[in-house]
Amino acid sequence: MPIPHLAARLDTGPTVPSRQGAPAAVRVRPAVPADAAWLAEVSRASFAPRLRDYLTSAQPGIDRFWQVVITHPASFPGRCFLVAEAADGDRLGFAELTLTERDRAHLSYVCVVEAARGRGVARHLLRAYLDRSPDVRTVQLDVFADNAPARALYDRLGFAVEATSTWWVADLALDGIAPGDDVRLDGLHAARAWLDTYGFAEFTVAADAGRVRLGRPSARVLRCFDPATLRQPALLAAVRQEFPEVDRVLVMTPGDDAPPSAVGELRAVNRSLRMSTAEIRTRLEHA
């Protein structure tokens, strides 16, 4: 089953306690399975509570999923977790990157614990990744538009905005809508197993009009990858019949204009920026 990634990349660290007075030296190592619970704690703490329902990495089972990723790297080619720590082993932050092309990587997360901020931990993590990936010349990322500390770092590293996206959410208004009798949920058993194990899932809905990809970033939220799905209330009513706990729908679209919706009034809950740089090696050398 594909993994339902969401645009949720942060650079500022969470308010997670770390021992004060740790040595200034920072070293970077690959994550090990025993780090998974800590990675999940750091990741969840880095997101505002109002957004956690829309993020797979903020779900209670993400530690189990990341443990699988770290334990079986051959099943997740190109995906890399790095952990920064002080000389005494105190963990300071982590980064997750994925090789998307031979010379291009996507930065999913770089999080630094509060007590370690201002020590260049994020730069240490990025340098370590590039040292391990000599062919990478371009790095791409998504960052929340209101994340000023992260954007300041990315500006210093030469990142430029390529596109913007708005996250739209609606409370599902399906009263009186009959579920479509031509709708079939493919992979339903697997989706339920993923939800029970990891807290998120993805599945496909087949109907006479075609196939629709949907996600469950959390128990109560349904993600529509195609905004046109918001104009198919009978299809979504059939999905809700199988998942009655779902009460909201999420869609992400380019720019600032809300897409048409026949299933509830949309409200903007977040805005993200797609950024990239081909200068990161040079900028890090002078950082």
Structure description:
This protein is an alpha+beta fold. It is built from seven helices and twelve strands. The chain has two domains: 152 residues, Gcn5-related N-acetyltransferase (GNAT) (Aminopeptidase, 3-Layer(aba) Sandwich); 105 residues, no CATH class. A twelve-stranded mixed beta sheet has the order 1-2-3-4-5-12-6-11-10-9-8-7, with helices on both faces. Strand 8 and strand 9 form a beta hairpin. The termini are far apart.
Short description:
By secondary structure, this protein is α+β, with helices and mostly antiparallel strands. The protein has helices at about 35-45, 60-70, 120-130, 150-155, 190-200, 235-240, 280-285; strands at about 25-30, 80-85, 90-100, 105-110, 140-145, 160-170, 185, 200-205, 210-220, 220-225, 250-255, 265-275.
CATH class division of the largest domain: Alpha Beta
Cα Rg:
20 Å
How many domains, in number, for the residues? 2
Number of strands: 12
- The geometry reads as globular
Overall CATH architecture of the largest domain: 3-Layer(aba) Sandwich
Main sheet specs? 12 strands, mixed
Provide mean pLDDT, rounded: 90
